[in-house]
Amino acid sequence: MDEKTTQIIDKLDRHNATSSWSGYAYQGKVAIYTALALINEMKIYKQEKNIDLFKLEIESLEDFSILNGDKYQSIHQVKSYKDNKYIKKYKSAILDLLGKTSKYEISNSYLHTVCKIESTTKQDLKKILEEYSPESKKDAQDSYKGYLFEKDFYDKAYEGFIYNVSEGESFNTVIDLEDTEKEIKNQIRIFFENSNSEMENNPAFYIENVHYIYLNFISEINNIIAHHHKCKSSEEPPIISFSRLFEILTKKNIFELTPDTLAHMLKDQLYKHFLDFLDEVEGEFTEEQVEVWNKSWEFIDELDNNQVLTLFKKISPSKAISNDTHLNIEDYVTLINEGGLKYNLFWLVLCLSYSPETYEKLFILNKESYNYLITTIDNRKTKNIIDKLGRKISENIKMHNELLPLLYDVNNLVNTHISGVYNGNILDLASAYKSEYPELYDEQGKNITEPKKIEFVKIDEIVEEFE
Question: Nearest Cα to 157, choosing from 89, 91, 107, 96?
Fold first, then answer.
């Protein structure tokens, strides 16, 4: 994070979308994939001096860039237009890339897309760019047209422009949204296969730890972007050195399951399931409703590791998680209930255009002093299901002190199919608060006069209540 770019970049040329950029976005994964592919291409399988020269710069001159020393080696723009194969859709991005390579004498520019786009001749592309009238970045793009067509840099810039690479080259520039994880993991495997790592000799161990390494890369880029987002006044762009990427690949404790690894696994799954959900409900929600999810995602993306783990325990309160200090990935995988996420939590957030005000109120609906927690519970209504779920939730609350405020702050658990009250014994909430949360007891515990009950309410009833 303390790396610096020494080449001076005109402020007009900076490409900054940090506020909407997350470590789980397509751009971040494409950047990691490209950097790993370059490490493999250079055949760097042990820490060498020349690896220190290379850096991955994010959201500065372009979506991401590769630096060699203090010079730009390549710039990369990433577009996730799904099923849009027309070259004219990308004319602004291409003008940016060719203009910047001309202005800053950069060898190569890359356009990364989720699908192949129509190929065009050099002359046809030139005509498209000459006829294009910039609007949103008029000053910068007019200057790029000057470099390309008045100063005659177009031919050279076009020679270094790369797009539509899907296989057979050093790295792909066409990767589907759903394939980024697979492609990153493939580059991790290539690294270990070519470095003769002992890890590869144990297939089960190998598969599990490739996943851990993948999550740690996502964690690294997400943390750097989050830090940069919080330090908005910083003029220095986020940069990850290749030596840092190499360290993530090779350090021994990469194979340990840590709270950081778990938190990013859960967020990564949440992100992927939301994309799947949007595909499945295409056309049912407006763009404005879909945009509402971003507000919740911003809160989640800025949580620390323990807050993330607590949040997932909260929205999946019936899933048993051991309170052992040894982390167990099998436990936490159960917190990702795909059906409950898609057709309870995601659906209700979009349907009601829900937007949280604070982390504490994340996925909590309020009406007339009643708080409704949106959960991922999607159990069918069967005999004694309320008692079974109530006992599980009660046990979880007893094992995990961080869930105690959930009982006080929440009146109903919103789920897919069941309504009713669990009348079993949970705990004396006032005593629990006094014991575990004395600072909260002073403010809230004195108002608790009886043990809390767990109440369930169906999503259909909530929609009627809040619409």
Answer: 107
